Records
---
Amino acid sequence: MTKTPQALALTLYEKIWNAHVVEQRGDGTAIVFIDRHLVHEVTSPQAFEGLRLAGRKVRRPDLTLAVPDHNLPTTARRDAAGKRIPIADPESAAQLAALEANAPAFGIRYIDAADAMQGIVHVVGPEQGFSLPGTTIVCGDSHTACHGGLGALAFGIGTSEVEHVLASQTLQLKRSKSMEVRVEGEIGPGVTAKDIVLHITGMLGAAGGTGYVIEYTGSAIRALSVEGRLTVSNMAIEHGARAGLIAPDDVTFEYLKGRPMAPKDAAWDAAVAYWRTLATDTGAVYDKVVVIAAADIAPSVTWGTSPEDVLPITGCVPDPMSFTDPAKQVAAQKSLDYMGLHAGMRMVDVEVQNIFIGSCTNSRIEDLRAAAAVLKGRRKAANVKWAIVVPGSGLVKRQAEAEGLDKIFTEAGMEWREPGCSACLGMNPDKVPAGERCASTSNRNFVGRQGPGARTHLLSPAMAAAAAVMGRLADVREMTQ
Amino acid sequence: MKAVGQIAGKAIPFGRKNIDTDIIIPAKWLKTITRTGLGQGAFESLRGDADNLFDDPRYKGAPILIAGDNFGCGSSREHAAWALADLGIEAVIAPSYSDIFAGNAFKNGLLAVELPQEAIDRLMVVAAEASGDGAPISIDLESQSVTTIFQDRFHFEIDPFRKLCLLQGLDEIGLTLDSEAAIAAHEAKMEEEQPWLVPNLS
Ligand code: SF4
């Protein structure tokens, strides 16, 4: 929709976009300034190599932060004597060594694998106060949208773009369309931020947000903690959106205040004053609006191999022929074959052998508390062979241990690991065996995502805990009442 | 990026349709830390075959690859363009490309020429028959033409912006850096109005 020149009412997205356009080009592309660049070991080596070949420097090392997460094993990083334990896989070790060498060579702040600050890029950024409202944030990882939970315009980029940002601190971009997804009302018991975003993904479809930046609004979103908002925005990419946004408010400011890398004192006040101007103006127009009643959202799980394959836990595996789109019928049948499920089966009858609580979607302290609340005084079922809890960062780990959550997990028969991406993607040693099922708090249930042949069911931390206890997908509401 | 103007030489008459990026470079090569050296893994699954075209002495050093429809479909891995470049390929000629591959090729200075199937058929014959003749096929980006030593001449279309970048050897980064003044002005404004934007990284 085009706006009349008089209508100065702007959306949050337009305000952030406008504040970062360095140069507008005739063909619709703009050079956009990037305020924050997060760098990890997998998508950066060739970018640094490119800089070297072209004889270029990193333009703004002071806006760049490097931390390893994807390849890193989640087992102990130091031995009893405090010595670093080397990584067994030579290729992972080489990628890690490359980042460890490239960061100082280009003057970039590097958080070491054995540092308490280390963690998943998207957990570390907000936690350190590196990610701020109103900023543009990029990283060579598609779930960078996560930082949108703080009101930052954040999105994933490819390796050439990583190099582009390192060299110029900008990107050449075209403006996206804007969509409002408004979730109104109160969510029911047992329903979490993860269920909200799974529900949205099911409704919009995996490509429903393609071409859009989505702003999540409404009373149910406002009521979420920052952790919950990060979870929602994290999965914007799973419904195809370029980025997700949640307007910063007092909850956001409270969360960020005093974080190590955030502004302090008078600078803090100036920052907050600016952030308060960012909210979408009354009368601003989105290109598309979707309204969801919070009361309609149930604790949710996925049944297929696309994140759009979402059902309430009380539901049954759908019949592929029930879809109207013939392409979806074929895809659904393929999904069921891969997942080893058949139409009509109740979701609560699906047995699981593996539990993964972690990933940038759900590995913050609130997530671990939610899982621990269900697991307290209980044990994982005998048929659950492998159950791991992987905190999102060393600081989350420390906090959880201070609260005694680690004891609850280990007493429940689960492993308590070092921070990293872990079983979110089958790139490090944490993999789900072929043909086995995993109740996972991560964000993608693609074929082979958690390892070749692995079968993934996405759900919330509380639901993953319930599945661990029951040895099958289970309705957490039955366990907490 | 080095400028791309004329590419003349032998061409590999590959011609296959729907070559996906998994065929161009299998996933197991993605854990690498360099853009170079990927030529070794390029078309790995096809090169297991002793008389494959890529290791055929007749096409040794060929800078041109002739392929079929929808070249470079599948995953978005930029490694596909890197692998071709490392193999010594400077241009691909095919009827069509996946969007992402075309973008990745462009970003890496690999010329992706689009010609209709009839032209491809003819070029396949020329590439095979004249493989002993030094440079049977020439591509001239300036005039947007592909010519052969047999006087064939095919005109191709290319996005004018991409053409300019390739001709002048302007990679996207180089182009952006041409706007140095605008970037610096933005930085100065940021420092003035929002000095708190620079994080405390110590
Ligand atoms: S946890 Fe998963 S989605 Fe998040 S950064 Fe790591 S690999 Fe990407």
---
Amino acid sequence: MAFYAPTDADQGIIQKIFYVHVPMAIVALCGFIAGGIFAVMHLRTRDRRWDMRSYVTIHLSIVLAVGVLLTGSIWARASWGQWFVWDEPMLVVFLIVFLLYATYQPLRFSIEDPEKQSRYASVFAITAGAFVPLCFGAVRMAENLTHPQAGTMTTSGPSSVTITFLVSLVGMSLLFVTLCRYEMASKNATSKLRSLRRRLAGDDDFPLPAGRSAAPQL
Amino acid sequence: MSTIAATGNNYVAAAYLVFLFLVLSYLAIMATKLSRIERQVVEISELVEARAASGASERAKEPVA
């Protein structure tokens, strides 16, 4: 799909990296915000399924964020001659957001009580989720930007660039939703199996899985 | 000029390969988890069937009044 769009006159072929890098970044950031919204629902309803949704969304967004950092570094190396530019606000803010969310799994894992684990994780997801639009809003309002903006990319180029970008964005969003549902189904099945094992262990020495997990317990 | 274009192609290929690698790794991990779930389901269903069979044989041994 990326090769349907014409080659950029300014950047050349390396501009095609944006068709994977930018949708990944947008979907990852929206995923972090969605994780915060699911966490609000969890605290409001005390329904563990919302905690599971929040956990899975954040988990998958972290995976995408790794992809954003790697593809962004490749583009920066090709365009600027450096893997990472420390005085570029967009890059540094994304790295900070990624590092913030990198503490989410260890935080969950460090809390043994499942009730406390889900509550503390929800508070973290809400705070960090609110931090994401604030940070990127501040960066967008700042002056002297050198990092290309997604808005200028789609409005300044020909319509095929816009179409390619939008198709990439929709594709990435659908991939994200599909993988989220896949992981959620897997986690639900694991929880159901665990409860079945517990019921069987009630009158038998059926072996129960040992150890704690960062994933929510339904 | 062609060297610059070739280098650009390499960077684009590397970026798309990173994305592909991430998605495939994720799917491989999920497939491993899925096969573990399948093993556990088989294990539990075998246990339930064994219990049902032993329960039926014990009922058959009981004297009829």
---
Amino acid sequence: MDAIIQVRNLSKSFGTNAVLQDINVDIQPSEVVVVIGPSGSGKSTFLRCLNLLEQPNGGEIVINGQSLMDKKTSITEIRSEVGMVFQQFNLFPHKRVIDNITLAPILVRKWPEEKARAKAMELLDKVGLAEKAEAYPPSLSGGQAQRVAIARALAMEPKIMLFDEPTSALDPEMVGEVLAVMQQLAREGMTMVVVTHEMGFAREVGDRVLFMEQGYVVEEGPPAEVFGSPKQERTRAFLSKVL
Amino acid sequence: MLGGFNFDIIGEYLPLLLKGALLTIGISVASIFLGSLLGLVVGFGKMSRRWFLHYPAVCYVNFFRGTPLYVQILMVHFGLVYAVLGRTNSIVAAITALSLNSAAYSAEIYRAGIQSIDKGQTEAAHSLGMNQSQTMRHIILPQAIKRMIPAFGNEFITLLKDSSLIAIVAAPEIMYWANAMNGQYMRIWEPYLTAALIYFILTYSLNRLLVYIERKV
């Protein structure tokens, strides 16, 4: 099968500070790839390059057969196929939950409002928050807000979902409800790239783990291998600190 | 000094002062409207990454914030308006000078309001496939405008009071008539206290209106 995400020799620097160096990754449809590593290792930057929230300095990214570096490729079109969930949720505080979810399908996909609403209610039901449809985001708990953010991204019917430390800003007792939604999504065959510090999730849900440090992918493999018998000294050092 | 406060001359001038107040209101409303519109253009120019939009906007703001409104009014009245219309017109000059001046301050209010919105909002909108203008219109502006209202309230009240400066080009607004009254009767408190009271009533009403709007939004 052809990879849905192909990353070749990707590099990115902020000024003289190289944050990504020579990244090569292929991700298959329905694969769940978990990216781990110390902070500042370039995990989030890597993820943000995949929907061009960061502009790479070199290399190539091909998503769904379209190169992101090709000037003819429509960035907004790529982004509508790639959902993203942020650490800080980034819900739109001035819009009700339901409108947070329906806005992009109506504006970008040009769906009629009834269709967008029906889809939104279906998704809210799926993340267990149908009763919050009319609420405003500031009234939600962190766990609820993040589940709405996931529903909002899914409303665009993306082929790929990117998660940027989705549970890092949550109180511990709310981490589970968000991970459960993500786990269900993985089971349904969504292609996912997840940056996280939740090693339990990486082990249970991930098909593959990438360990990054100082801008490089130092080690990759199935979770059982990376966690069970890491090949690299640096991976071992990191895991001994977090497990 | 207050001895023999002469209410008769106030009575005599009151119709003129009230007519002047109407002109003050008209000029202020027009200048607030035009200044806010022009300020939007200048503000976006200042935020632009394109140098040919950015630098003119920066110069504009620096010039109109960095020179006295008094000087600007004289230049607009005897220079700009005369050059364009071929004759002077104090009301056109008043609205033009106040609008140009207010636009510089409004531009900064827009810029500060827009840049105060967390960049995560823009990123979330972009990640959903929204383009720049959809993001601005549906996500950034509705939140930013709410934060701009108190600053705009200050700006509008300042503009209303600054409109008193246009008496120097003989636009027959409140201060023009107060000065006339002072000239005719050589009295200080009657004309200027009355003018102050009228300005206070206007700014206070505007303030109440803004508080109401702020609560509504």
